[in-house]
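Structural prep section.
Before we set up the soaks we want a predicted structure of the protein with NDP in place, mainly to decide which crystallisation condition to try first. Input record follows.
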Amino acid sequence: MKILCVLYDDPTTGMPESYALETLPVIEKYPDGMTLPTPEKIDFKPGELLGCVSGELGLRKFLEDAGHTLVVTSDKDGDDSVAAKELVDADIVISQPFWPFYLTRQRIESAPKLKMAITAGIGSDHVDLQAAMDHNVDVVEVTYCNSISVSEHIVMMILSMVRDYHTQHAIAKSGGWNIADAVKRSYDVEGMHIGTVAAGRIGLSALRKMKPFDVHLHYFDRHRLSADIEEELNLTFHDSVESLVAVCDVVTINTPLHPETENLFDEVLISKMKKGAYIINTARGKICNREAVAAALESGQLSGYAGDVWFPQPAPNDHIWRTMPHHGMTPHTSGTTLSAQARYAAGTREILECFFADKPIRDEYLIVHGGDLAGTGAHSYSKGSATSGSEEAQNYKK
Ligand code: NDP
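Run finished without errors. Recording the tokens verbatim:
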């Protein structure tokens, strides 16, 4: 079989010769008891760069020993890209949300042999799920592999935005010492109202991690958490996103991107937020309206916006979120720490081992299976596609 693997570029200085840490901490289980990936074997050292082209997710030996062909590229945007050309006779395509190979309907229809799209990570919105269902292409992701990585990033972003870390760090780096400049937008998080839109694996973990900061916690989700969890965290449930945003100082967004959540934070919803609130969005860029966010930061309706997700990716060089005031954006990194890479590379291998051995893939990894939403996909997504406009990614210039 032919496996096409689309990964981000290697470091500009080449692959590292050594790493900051020699080993990774051992994680026994995910917080809800789910087991970490269980491949029969791995051919990489956890803690090394695996998500870039030379890292190859540690898959080459395994695939070639079994007689398969592996094509790895970072060239993914536009009809002339290597990935678009290699896709036409590929059986399996692997892509990561950080550097997504947008599998639009047109691309899925260009690949008659395509059987499965694997997301090495979480979030399969870069695949036109409706087209995948229509063409019987299974879509799977490595559920939970980087949920905790992201919730750590959320805590970092909440603290850094509310305390205005970025301004202070810039002053220190530039040789300055104006304390008033450094603190004129700096607050404590203590006592604030913090709310998550969606309390799934990431949202709930972010709530748990924020609890020791003595804040008031809120959530909105389609399904209510258990009474035990609500009590443990002293949580306030909201039955609409409008109700949540009206009272929260910080709103963190943790839903998948699908037709129900696309453009959810538009001008109208942002105008219903508490004045001067902060948004932390590590879910997907397209859940927030690009221009509405920038305008709200200009007017003061929002005090800050941070996260790591953009639309499309890579973000065009002139994407307004690169230059708007009071933002704390990073490129899409929160779910691809070296720790997370080891888990999703192992999970990708587990999925491939199951597929080749004709064994069922874990239910929790399934998004689309047998022409319909399945597993985690049936719980967390809705039918349709959120890939429109992805062709703009080719405007990015290195
Ligand atoms: P989960 O499936 O555990 O949680 C998703 C939650 O979103 C579920 O509780 C689901 O509710 C809820 N939800 C779905 N649609 C809606 C809606 N319309 N309104 C309110 N709630 C909704 O996934 P994770 O928490 O692990 O990940 C969430 C998302 O975070 C991913 O889909 C991905 O887009 C993003 N992510 C980003 C990463 C990064 O590197 N920045 C890495 C990993 C993930 P219910 O099931 O109750 O219906």
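Observations: The chain has two domains: 2-145+336-395, 147-322.
Flagged for discussion at group meeting.
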